Amino acid sequence: MGNYEISECVRENLRAAGCDEETIKRLEKGEDLEMQLKILSKYRRNLLENLHIEQSKLECLDYLIHEMRAKTKEKS
C-alpha cells in the first residue's frame, strides 16, 4: 500500500487543523498510508484530550460564575 501524497492543499488543511511542520514532515515521510493514518489518529487523540481538559476548565469557571451571581442575588 502506497502513502497518501501530501499536496499543498493537504498541507494547508493540516496547518488549519493545527499541525506543526514537524508533524507534516512525519506524514510526508510516512512509509505507507497506514503509518500516515496512525500519525493523524494520534494527533487527533491529543487534540481531543486537550479539548476535554479545556472543557473541564470552562465548567469550573461556569460553576464559579453561577455561584457568584447567586450570592449577589441573595444580597439584593
Describe the protein's architecture and organization.
The protein is an all-alpha fold and 76 residues long. Helix content is 80%, strand content 0%. The protein has 3 helices and no strands. The chain has helices at 8-16, 21-29, 33-75. Helix 2 runs antiparallel to helix 3. The longest helix has 43 residues, at 33-75. It is rod-shaped and about 70 Å long. The model has no long low-confidence stretch (mean pLDDT 94).
Could you give the topology of this structure?
Blueprint: H1 8-16, H2 21-29, H3 33-75
Main beta sheet, described?
Answer: none
**What is the molecular shape?**
rod-shaped
Which ranges are low-confidence, i.e. pLDDT below 50, for 5 or more consecutive residues? none
* N-to-C CA distance: 70 Å
Structural class computed from helices and strand pairing: mainly alpha
The total of beta strands comes to 0
| Range of helix content | over 70%
Fraction in beta strands: under 5%
The SSE string, one letter per element, is HHH
Number of helices: 3
Radius of gyration: 21 Å
State mean pLDDT (0 to 100 scale).
Answer: 94
